[in-house]
Amino acid sequence: MPDKAKRRRLTSSSRPQTFSPFARSLALAASASSSGKQDAPDDGFGKNARKEKIEQTESSDEESAHSQSSDDDDDDGGEIEGEVQADFAFFDPKPSDFHGVKILLQNYLGDEEWDLSGFVDLILGQTTVGTVVKIEGAEDDGLFSVVSALNLDRYKDHKCIIELKEYLLKVCPENPVIGDLRALLKEQAQRTGLLVSQHVMNFPPQLLPPLYDALFDEVSWATEDEPTEELKNSFKFSNYLLVSKIYKLKSGSRKSKQSGNHDKDADILFSKLEDEIFYKLSSWSFNFPLHTPPVTNHELKNYQLTGLVMAVKAEKVTQFREELKSMINES
């Protein structure tokens, strides 16, 4: 199987490039640093793969968000300008990543009590398809992203998948979409991949295209290289199901009243840049309420954090990859 290895040199600005009002708010509010600690990556480990070099000019606050420290630290704690080099490396998931992946996914279903630990175990146990992103060689080595695709039929007997399905059916509105959801979770589960993707808030957007390239390339490779026909077939997805979050404009807010009868989609702010593309390409989607603490960011005071479920046909993956690259390149 081809490995993920390909080094590219990318340059990012002092803050993540933004593509929507939400991303701008998030860039300002970002305090994302994973507190999970794993052993430093082993240079000889498996698909140590595609390594992305980011040269950034950051303040001391931003450096801490990337678990980096500048050689030019100012004793007065003032803003520090300088070049900070960070090697973001893509790795196969492994057992020592458990804590970091669990932190990234701790709010996957809001405050719902479910078998999150079992869910993390599934992701870590599937090494042929799945990636975690770390800073290579960092002493304080946390996770910055995790992405995977789990076959809903292959893992149907696991407690976490049973509870996930029950939860989605519970929160899905009673409208025609619930029939489509039931079909993906049951009759079509053998060809449905649960696409799991989560990043820290200030994850460099330049890493998104190669991250998703790695995922979808691995899915393709798995259909040919897995040791049994059953495993090969388990990655022949017809549909992907995604569970994510958005910010929706609160009804009754001044902004909502000013918006009048315009397109309701204009009142949506996406928590992840790529979700805007998935949403556009989705066959269907629905929102569900999340029980989470109130939004404290002043710029998002008129918005409510809301769950979002999307179904995307596998045939749309090529278009997704092209549009994601265009989105990043044009910014």
UniProtKB/TrEMBL annotation:
Polar residues bias spans: 11-20
Location of the region described as Disordered in the Swiss-Prot/TrEMBL record: 1-79
Pfam families: BCCIP (PF13862)
InterPro entries: BCP1_family (IPR025602)
Compositionally biased spans, kind Acidic residues: 70-79
Bias (Low complexity) ranges: 23-35
Comp. bias regions, Basic residues: 1-10
Source species, domain of life: Eukaryota
PANTHER family: BRCA2 AND CDKN1A INTERACTING PROTEIN, BRCA2 AND CDKN1A-INTERACTING PROTEIN
Family stated for the protein in its record: Belongs to the BCP1 family.
Protein name: Protein BCCIP homolog
Organism encoding this protein: Eucalyptus globulus
Taxon lineage: Eukaryota, Viridiplantae, Streptophyta, Embryophyta, Tracheophyta
